[in-house]
Fold:
Amino acid sequence: MAVWYEVRRGTAVIQIDNPPVNGLSHAVRAALGESLERALDDPQVKAVVLTGTAKTFSGGADIREFNSAAMAASPSLAQLIEATETATKPVVAAINGVCMGGGLELSLGCHYRLATRDAQMALPEVKIGLIPGAGGTQRLPRAVGAELALRMITTGDPIDADTALRHGLVERIVVNDSFDDVLAFCEEIAVRGQRPKLRERVVTLTGDMGALFVAARAELHKTGRGLQAPLACVDAVEAAARLPFDEGLAYERKIFIERVQADESKALRHAFFAERTAAKIPDVPDGTPTRRIDRVAVIGFGTMGGGIAMSFANAGMPVRVLETKPEAFERGMTACRMNWEATAKKGRMTAAEVQQRMALLQPATSMQDLADCDLVIEAVFEDMAVKQSVFKALDAVVKPGAIFATNTSTLDVNQIAAATRRPQDVIGLHFFSPANVMRLLEVVRAEKTGKDALATAMKLARRIRKVAVVSGVCDGFIGNRMLEQYVRQSLFLLDEGASLQQIDAALLKFGMAMGPFTMYDMAGMDIGYAIRQRRYVEKPHITYSKIADKVVELGRLGQKSGKGWYRYEPGDRTPRPDPEIDALIQAHRAEVGITPRTVSDQEIVQRCVFALVNEGAKILEEGIALRASDIDVVYLTGYGFPVAKGGPMFYAEKLVGLSQVIEAMHGFAVNPAVDSRFWQPAPWLLRQAEKTAAK
Ligand code: NAD
Structure:
């Protein structure tokens, strides 16, 4: 049953029951339409209430129906809303919790709205590259005024019941667990006999109309990372303010259809589903037993340990921290405090919250203090011997059944696990820097990691609000292994004649959060240097440009040393060009015998991005990543890949086309300045391209 119907005290109560979010699928819309007709035909019924089960009015349209026949099947959401608005008896939306997207649009077609105190109302379509498409952009401004509607529609963020009441979106707040308030309200309005329609209202606004929309667009051009959907939202709200209702509605429909078909929305919807899919592990089904995690410890309170401890404290979980010396512990505490205080200064936290979170960080003085922990995360120096000795010591003192995690970036988790007698309890939890900010968590499944340990880690990730992606064991796991190829190409491009400013600008224009050379300076170049020195010995057949080594050997490590690829003024992170680097690059080109050529921006983007794609395909082939969409999640949440392009694998497959990608790779392979072997398209890409061609 998708919709319940009953008559109570002369009111027809129509309740949506379509778990998990009461999505407005075609079946639900049809049942709602029938229930409404039934109520209008019943002479006993004086008023109608729409509501939902389980603290959810409706989470909105069923996004699985997008671009499918079911989406347009009658009654469409717009038709259902029209039937509600023109109903011959008053219809009340009793908003009993979550009311999002199409759910809110449906409530806007009702004559009255009531909300429980915990209600959350939003039009989040912009987050998947759309605008509300069933009258939301036209009715919401008529309900709450242009300013609030603009904010809600361009950000997609929810408002609570009090805000909704203050702005006239709802008539009253009703008691959560009792339907009496709702039925009493229905009796009142049945007597009054009015059926106020939002379509008949005018849009109010406090300031100047022109200025409001100019300012909204200017702000989005600054902060919107090139996304088109938020701008389309502004257009639609402006239409509500300037045009008669029906013309505005037609305009909304036109933009909605354009947005549904746009690559941006396809990419954002892919990202939305990809994040949810990443939590699914084929041989670890839902319902796999998990271990209880209450007591958590972090070993090492440096850059990463600090951020990891903060992530737990931010989720309200206490963390014990073990360092080598009291001074190191104090340094870590100071770093965390400064970080939270900076957040408080921006008004995003109170001073009391800073204190509460600090109190969650507790010192451990020895391994013994960790004996009763359920989870220990190691974030000590990146050195196999140090890590193995830590794990051996843990094995000796910590209770059976505890999970031991390592935050290593490059070391073999199987080898670390082998230092214990319980490899089934060892896992990699690879956080990204700054760990309290970055959403990505690579969960590294080692050869012997237990399924319950893995399921526990995935569940824990949600608790600390991280997006977990499972990776097998390999050097660099998913993200950094791919990044190495991106870095290599960026350096080859520099050798061949592009300037670092050109490379940074081209990738920034493509949509990356920052250009590669700006990123290297920010991350610090010593780690990459150390990795390359190891590669020269371990994998001598792989060629690297030596230009980055020369920069590091001048003592230029990036922002932390005041200069790297760029130079920095004290206290200022703005990258400035440095003639010393230009001279170094010129000398380097002469030394390796390259006559610089003009490199196009297109070549820069393709070589860097397709390098990610080719390595990503190898990672899939080897089973290191479970699926292509997991790789996209890694790049979208951990590496600043443009969300409007859906991640490297989606971009290659769906926006460029694999046959073009493969052709470009063949083209790069004939360039003597690059590693031609690398540019042989990975077998996974060839197979996938064939499959697409056969369709
Ligand atoms: P860091 O040097 O800032 O911190 C390491 C801390 O561990 C130091 O404070 C040190 O005193 C402490 N320590 C060393 N041995 C210890 C021991 N036996 N017991 C207790 N404490 C000990 O290093 P970091 O950048 O935080 O890196 C830590 C780990 O995280 C490394 O494995 C690194 O590869 C990994 N990692 C780093 C990053 C990054 O961007 N920095 C990103 C992901 C993962």
About this structure: Residues 299-305, 322-324, 328, 379-382, 386, 390, 407-409, 431, 433 surround nicotinamide-adenine-dinucleotide (CB under 6 Å). The mean pLDDT is 95.
